Amino acid sequence: MDPKTLSYYSRHAREIFNKYESASVGIEKYFKQAFPQKGLILDIGAGSGRDVRHLIKEGHEAYGLEPSDELRTLTIQKYPELASRIFKGFLPDDLSSLDKKFDGVVASAVLMHIPKEHLFDSVFAIKRILKQEGRALISIPVDRKNLDNDRRDDKERLFTDITAEYLELLFERIGFKSLRKWKDKDSLGRKDVSWVTLLFQLVDASKLRPIDQIESVLNRDKKVATYKLALFRALCEISMTGFQRVRWFSDGTVGIPLEDVCEKWIYYYWPLIESSSFIPQIQGEHESCAKPIAFRELLGSLIENYANAGSLPGFTVDLRNKNISSGIMPLFKKLNTRLKNTITKGPVTYAGGSLSTGRLFEYDSQEQLIIFDAGIWKEISLMSHWILDALILRWAELTARLSRDVISPSEVIDLLLVNPLPEREVSLARSIYRDLESVECVWSGKITKDFDIDHVIPFSFWRNNDLWNLMPSQPRLNLQKKDKLPSHDLLIRWKDAIIYYWQILREKSEPRFDFETGKILGKEKRYFSNWELPLFSALAEAVEVTALQRGCERWEIK
């Protein structure tokens, strides 16, 4: 604790003691929420023993540390029953001598008096005396006024410049999770003083946070192939564009259809295998090696079959139209079987092997679902666009290493970013709209002879050329919209027009439309008596989630 601050509290112990005793309801009003189970609680900076007494009344085994001898003496004189419960001590040093682990810690109006250079040590000391999943209830003042350049008040008390957000980050970085935050007026009635109270819980060391589990797999798991990176990339993309396909279970897990991951793997590995240069994807792989990646030969044969039929875009269109020829279909099915086997016996089995928590994934062979913790799925869903950038870079760097730097990371990145349907591949939607007697702009309702194809969700965000995402628009409005997302009001205003064009698109290209909308809806259209409304709801949700996660600018017609 800051010496000058401690000196003030010691010299004015009687005044401070009386103030504490006369205070209106303070931090104790949060004790029942913070510590719902009876336990061993330590109050750091016990003052008059007020909070220790409240904790004891609520059934806890409570103790206190107080650095001021004078305050501690007054407390024991007034409340002799606390003589064996209030000890001399302060942060950070004196916590290390405690021989007990506590279920909870209270530090009310304490951390603000710790010099900033000792703040980390103090928070770490709190962590060391807590049991796993123990809780810390912390209060600090908000924006303390009338401080000098050294952040001292007129009584020379130190008020370290810390905010609630800073404390949240500090606690979370050393293994806590933030549970609650409250803001209150001053319990002593001071009008220029307010408080924020934070509740943290120490995460069980055997239970890594979801983002730490993901990061640990990507960083610490043995990397002899790109399979784990491909699996996590697929999960990230599914979380953005196919989140309705996920199955949620009551035991806190989710299930991702294996077939969706297989489809993504074809898109990822096609450009790598099609490249004129041999690009290894597993340790020791080279052009004449005996053990290449498990599906290289089959995917290579599929690529050869589409060499003069549109390459990857041609295959993608055929797949979505359910138009893969009878001559190629046996090869495609064999490739899918090999991919499923590779995914389930490779990254699904081994991802997480380096973690104390063990494997991340299980496989339900009956339902053909990849099963894992819902917390990890939520983290992927919230952070997918950031994780994706890191995955692409790590994939490129790993590939360069596997090639012994013959292939550069930049070459690999270009190939990994190849889209199965490039942005310009909107020809089917354009031809369908062009065959109509008249075309009305989806955003204005005005008839337009010359129209552009507008991506409702811009291509730059989803890299998505699904038919449901392609609408006719006046060129000037399409130019005005650019990479903006339509406002919710605009979507609602032109809901009927969007659904009208969906009906036309489905009428003209039902297999492809159903394939693509099945990803965003999560089910085949035959399960819906009215597929239009669920699809519009899914679109509206996707727009809002994308806007929130990506900080996108919204668009309204000017």
Describe this protein's structure.
- By secondary structure, this protein is an alpha/beta fold.
- It has three domains: 200 residues, Vaccinia Virus protein VP39 (Rossmann fold), CATH 3.40.50; 207 residues, no CATH class; 129 residues, no CATH class.
- Helices cover 45% and strands 14% of the residues.
- The chain is built from 23 helices and 15 strands.
- Helix 2 crosses helix 5.
- It is elongated and about 95 Å long.
- The relative contact order is 0.07.
- The model has no long low-confidence stretch (mean pLDDT 89).
Concise overview:
This protein has 558 residues and is α/β, with parallel strands linked by helices. The protein has helices at 3-11, 13-22, 31-34, 50-57, 69-78, 119-129, 164-173, 210-220, 227-241, 258-274, 296-305, 311-320, 329-345, 347-350, 374-402, 409-416, 427-434, 459-462, 475-481, 488-493, 495-508, 510-521, 532-550, and strands at residues 40-44, 61-66, 86-88, 102-108, 130-141, 176-185, 194-202, 247-248, 253-257, 362-364, 369-373, 452-455, 470-473, 485-486, 554-555. Helix 2 packs across helix 5 (69-78) and helix 10 (258-274) crosses helix 13.
State the low-pLDDT regions, or none: none
Strand pairing plus helix content: what structural class?
alpha/beta
Question: Biggest β-sheet, characterized?
Answer: 7 strands, mixed
Number of domain units: 3
Number of separate helices: 23
Shape: elongated
Strand arrangement, major sheet: 3-2-1-4-5-7-6
Helix content: 40-55%
Strand content: 5-15%
Number of strands: 15
User: What Rg, in angstroms, do the CA atoms define?
Assistant: 31 Å
Distance between the termini: 60 Å
What is the arithmetic mean of pLDDT?
89
